[in-house]
Amino acid sequence: MSSNEKIALENLAYYRERNRNKVYAAVVALFSRLVETQNITKREIAYRLSKEPAQITRWFSGPSNWTLDTVSDLLLAMGAELDYKDVQIGQRISHVRPHPLLQNEPNKVVWIKPKEPCKEDKVRVENAETGTTKRPLLVRVG
Amino acid sequence: MPRSPDVALRRALFMTHELYEATHGPYSSDTETIRYAALQAQLEVFIGDAVVASSYLKPLSPRNKGVWEIKNKRPKPSLRVFGLFASRDVFIGTHYQPRPSLGGFGTPMWKEQIRAARYEWRQLFGDTEPLIGDLDEVISGAVYV
After folding, report:
1. What is this structure's pTM?
2. Helix-strand-coil percent breakdown of chain B, rounded to 5?
């Protein structure tokens, strides 16, 4: 991303949502681990934060109303805080093995068309065809 | 493909053409732009996140129909993307609706979403049934909250 360009509105909105989801995922993952290792409950978290259990349930239903204070409180109630590390966009090193359906040309939109109707048939992935006039029925997003 | 180059490709998400066009622009206003850019990021949680919470992806009732909803609550209006699983970690998004249009759970509008999703599924897969199961059976990295 060039530092001389204004950031498009859709990118701002996209990365804001992405950030909210990352934070939510971190908190939820921690909660899940502590449920397994320490049998922690939402009721205990509520008690530690002087909140009603219903509030904790609402918080865990999604990051929509979370503030930075919400994040801090939930993590502290679980004996943790987040360790923030910046990563330049596009330079993250991923060790994740792509899903088998995404291993070939993962950044290419793939049009998926079913074969001619057949009771036993299943959809097959076909390479994108440029200039096709037939509208595809499925688009691979990721 | 995911908007961010940093989205890991853990799971495969497919959409009907109509759903893709509706959620990927071009848009007629800044409000729409913001709304659907947020939805894109939310859908990419399915593709790339190591952990997928039960709050994110829920089965519709009756569960034997195999229809699921992905929630995206903000910004308003809250949206729901509906779809079915072709196999574990492979989601077929069929359509979406603004949450306010659906009314209370169990109402005819919710049943209509199941019918619409199953219809789209049959157009693509005929008699083949979708994957039916609990969250941790249909996706990897499921956590219950």
Report:
1. 0.85
2. 35, 25, 40
